[in-house]
Structure formats: structure tokens, C-alpha cells
Write a structure and sequence with these properties.
523 residues; mainly alpha; Growth Hormone, Chain: A; 3 domains; two-stranded antiparallel ribbon; 22 helices; 62% helix; elongated
């Protein structure tokens, strides 16, 4: 391998070519912000109760008392049951005999039954969600978190295959093929006839979503120079993801039907496809495959755009040799990738997605809470760039993880009446975890060599999907105890912060091109 950065230094760091690559790659990330967290609105569960058929000859008194009261788990208040009603035959009998509920009939003695005629849902917030369409409540409420988990299973599969495809066939082609997959299958999802069909298509959407995100991330990391790379890999990509995330509640606020919302989310994906003609392949990757002429043509085109005269010979073919093909097995032979992927990535992923998916459960307006959760990411990504530009990688990871863990643990100490203070602590925890997420992506890209960079990022992302698959079930634990998700997330995050001190330091080091250039992990 040649010294790529030295041989392309004549291009400068921030000419028209770099600006074009930077902004177009960032634009391609916006649809990922929609897709990754759209399930917050697509599968939200509005207030509901058993349906009492309108044609039944029940008096108003019995119709109004048809739903038994139950004690709420976290507050202890009596609320109408979501899954049971008093037995219809008994209520009809009492109603016909003119008996009054609570006066002539002791309701505690009236037998109950499930919602045999279905449910009626509060339509004040949503026209429809997949929960109201396919009744994912009561005995079927387990299907709701499973829907998110199926998406993240697709993300896991995409992380596994896209990294290896990208290292073998190129960053650019994998990126645009998977943008098309994500967009087309989101469109197909609109026509889902059942929950099972929705989940199968959602799996493919998840596969496409992570694949194009990682390919774009690695493409930018390899094309851009050291200083601009730092901005791109922390603040750049992440801020545009946050823009997509912020636009999600705005769009969802105006489109309250889940099918129409999905249709609206496909449009930005179709707009990204023409970027094929403006984003080049990675010259670094082409050199690692021995394709010197193609790499040189891209660099000469870059010089032309930057109005710079290139040297007559940019890459000396005698110094460039095609690298041996590597795959995920080369990574798994060492404990390095196992350590960073299983411990660090999983913890950060659980924290990020559990807190993001939890916005619909927070007190107040679901759209505002989701927007607030997205807004918190803007300063978080800005801080990640500052830390990545001027600070030690290990200390950056330790400080953000440990702080996030502590704030999440503090939530359970807040009295129940101080709701907004608890939400503030949760947003500070989300801020810290989001900062770590951006740093971890960029840090992993720094640690692993060009011949394996996309595969390494894919392997870490793949292992972390175990975290994102179980993240919806962390939220599901709320039904047993409100504070349990925060205790688990806070403890895991703080522990990962302490363990991150064992990682190698890559601040100020050149990007490794081969496996022999990789740093050893002291821990």
C-alpha cells in the first residue's frame, strides 16, 4: 500500500470536491433518521377499551359502567380496564330488568370477559397506527415491541452482509443499491395486509437502512482528509441523521394515518438516488484492490474540481499491490473486535434506542417529546466533534458514558410529582449516550484498517444489534416497574464507561491501511 494521505495532500482539505462529497453523503443520511425511529408513531398504542356493540339494547347507565375499574401499576389510581368488560349477557339481563349498576347490582360480583368484539381506540391523536389496525393490545401486546425487534434483526443482517459486500465490491455500489432497497420496501410496506407481512417487509427495510448508512460513513471517512474526516464522522453524518429524526415528528404531526406517513417517508429516499452521479468510489478502496488507474482518475477529477494541477504520477503502480481479500473471520480471530463490539457497542445501542423509543411514553405531547429527543442530539453531535477534535478517545468515551449512566440512575430517585424534572434528567442521559454513539462510530473507523474497515464497522454494528433488538423490551419492563428500565440502562452504561478506559488510544494517529498497522488492545 502507498501512503495515500501523503500522495493526495496536494488536493487540499476543503476544496469543491471535498465539499461536494461531504454534503451529498450527509444528505443521503437524512432518510435514515426517519426510518430508524418511525416506529415510535407507526406503532404507538393510544388509550383503548373493550368495544360494546352499538346495536345492543343496553341502558345508558349500564353502557357507561360496562368497563370494570383496575388499579394502575405505577400510580395506584383506578382506571377503566383496557382488556376486560363485564359479561354482556349478564349486563343485558340486568338492563332488561331495570336494575341499576352500583345501586341494585354489586359490580364486584358481575363476571368479566375479554374484548370479544374488539376494541375502541381514542382517535384524538392518531387516525390509525399498526396497533389499532391489527389490535396489538392485551394478549397480543407482545407483538408491539417485537415489531421494533424485527426491524433491528434486519439491521443486524444488513450489518453482517453489507460490510463484507462493501469491502469486496465497493462502497458506492453497495450504498446506492441499499438506498434503493430501503426506499422501495418502505413503499411496499404501505400496502401491508397483516402484521406478519408488515414485519417481513420491515426486516428488509432495516437491512437496507444500516447498509447504506455504514457505506456512506466509510466512503466519507476514506475520501476526506484528516481534519474534515473528523467533522464528517462525528458531527456531519450525525447532524444530518438528527435532521431526519427532527423532521419525523413534524411530518407525523400533520399525517396521523400510518400508511400515509410511510408514504411520506419514502419521498426523500427517491430524491437521494440521483446522487449516484455526484459521489465517487473510494480511491483508498480501489488502491487496496490494485485498481490504480480508476483511483488516479478520481483523484485527477478531484484536482480539476479544486482547480489544482496534479503531479504527472500520483500513485506509483510499483508501490501499489492488491491486498489479500479479508472477511469477518479475520476480525474474529482476535479478541479486539469481540471486546469493542459486544461490550461497548451493545451498551450504547441499548441506551440510545431504548431512550429514543421511550418518547411516546413520556408525560405530555408525544410529538413534542420526540422532537425534543431529536433536538437534544444536535448539541450532542456538536460536542462529539469537539471531543473528537481535541480530546483523548478513551477519556471522551469514559466521561460521556459514565455521566449518562449516572443521570439515568438518578431518575428513580425523583419523586413522582416532579415529572418534568425526571424528563429533563432523561434528556441529559440521552444527550450523553448520543454523544458516545457518534464517537464510537468514528473511533471504530479509526482503529481498523482500510482492507477491513467496512467489515469491522459492520461487525461492531452487527453485534450491537443484539442491544437494539432487546431495547424495545427494556421499555416493555415499564409495565412492571417504571424505574426498572432506568436502573438497568444506567448501570450498564456506567459500567461500560469504566471498561472503556481499557481501549487503545487513536487520537492523532494515521488511519491504518493494513492489519499489521492496527494498534494492539491493552485490555
Amino acid at each position: 500500500m502507498t501512503d495515500y494521505e501523503a500522495e493526495t495532500a496536494f488536493l487540499g482539505e476543503w476544496g469543491r470536491f471535498q465539499q461536494q462529497v461531504f454534503f451529498f453523503l450527509c444528505l443521503s443520511i437524512i432518510p435514515n433518521g426517519f426510518t430508524a425511529l418511525a416506529i415510535v408513531f407507526l406503532a404507538d398504542t393510544p388509550p383503548h377499551r373493550c368495544l360494546i356493540p352499538a346495536h345492543l339494547n343496553l341502558t345508558d347507565a349500564w353502557r357507561n359502567s360496562s368497563i370494570p375499574l383496575e388499579e394502575e401499576n405505577h400510580s395506584g389510581a383506578l382506571v377503566p380496564s383496557k382488556c376486560f368488560r363485564y359479561k354482556l349477557d349478564d349486563m343485558l339481563s340486568f338492563s332488561e330488568r331495570g336494575l341499576l349498576p352500583g345501586v341494585d347490582v354489586n359490580l364486584t360480583n358481575v363476571p368479566k370477559e375479554g374484548c370479544l368484539d374488539g376494541w375502541e381506540y381514542d382517535r384524538s391523536v392518531y387516525i390509525s397506527t399498526i396497533t389499532t389496525e391489527w389490535d396489538l393490545v392485551c394478549d397480543d401486546r407482545w407483538k408491539n415491541p417485537l415489531t421494533s425487534s424485527v426491524f433491528f434483526c434486519g439491521v443486524l443482517t444488513g450489518s453482517f452482509i453489507s460490510g463484507q459486500l462493501s469491502d469486496r465490491y465497493g462502497r458506492k455500489i453497495v450504498m446506492f443499491v441499499t438506498i434503493a432497497v430501503q426506499t422501495v420496501f418502505t413503499f411496499i410496506q404501505v400496502f401491508s395486509s397483516s402484521w406478519v407481512v408488515f414485519c417481513i417487509v420491515f426486516f428488509v427495510v432495516g437491512l437496507g437502512q444500516i447498509s447504506n448508512y455504514m457505506s456512506a460513513f466509510v466512503l466519507g471517512t476514506e475520501i476526506l482528509g484528516p481534519r474534515v474526516r473528523t467533522i464528517f464522522s462525528t458531527a456531519g453524518v450525525s447532524l444530518f441523521f438528527a435532521v431526519g429524526y427532527m423532521l419525523l415528528p413534524v411530518l407525523a404531526f400533520f399525517i396521523r394515518d400510518w400508511r400515509m406517513l410511510l408514504l411520506g417517508l419514502t419521498l426523500p429516499g427517491f430524491l437521494c438516488l440521483p446522487l449516484w452521479w455526484f459521489i465517487p468510489e473510494s480511491p483508498r478502496w480501489l488502491l487496496s484492490r490494485g485498481r490504480v488507474e480508476e483511483a488516479e482518475a478520481i483523484v485527477r477529477d478531484a484536482a480539476k474540481k479544486n482547480k489544482i494541477e496534479p503531479p504527472s504520477v500520483i500513485f506509483n503502480p510499483s508501490q501499489v499491490r492488491s491486498q489479500q481479500t479479508h472477511n469477518i473471520c479475520d476480525l474474529l480471530r482476535s479478541p479486539n473486535i469481540r471486546w469493542i463490539s459486544v461490550t461497548l457497542w451493545n451498551t450504547v445501542t441499548i441506551g440510545y434506542f431504548a431512550l429514543s423509543l421511550n418518547t411516546a411514553n413520556l408525560h405530555g405531547n408525544a410529538y413534542f417529546n420526540c422532537f425534543l429527543s431529536a433536538l437534544v442530539e444536535i448539541p450532542a453531535y456538536t460536542l462529539s466533534w469537539v471531543l473528537f477534535r481535541w480530546c483523548s478517545r478513551r477519556l471522551s468515551l469514559f466521561s460521556t458514558l459514565f455521566m449518562g449512566g449516572l443521570f439515568l440512575l438518578f431518575i428513580r430517585l425523583i419523586p413522582a410529582n416532579l415529572i418534568y424534572f425526571a424528563i429533563t434528567l432523561e434528556m441529559i442521559g440521552k444527550f450523553a449516550v448520543t454523544t458516545t454513539f457518534a464517537i464510537v462510530y468514528a473511533y471504530t473507523a479509526e482503529l481498523y484498517p482500510t482492507v477491513l474497515r467496512n467489515t469491522a464497522l459492520g461487525a461492531c454494528s452487527m453485534a450491537s444489534r443484539i442491544g437494539s433488538i432487546i431495547a424495545p423490551y427494556f421499555i416493555y419492563l415499564r409495565s412492571y416497574s417504571i424505574s426498572l428500565p432506568y436502573i438497568l440502562m444506567g448501570s450498564l452504561t456506567a459500567l461500560a464507561g469504566l471498561l472503556s478506559l481499557l481501549l487503545p488510544e487513536s487520537y492523532g494517529m494515521p488511519l491504518p491501511d493494513t492489519i499489521t498497522h492496527m494498534q494492539q488492545f491493552p485490555g
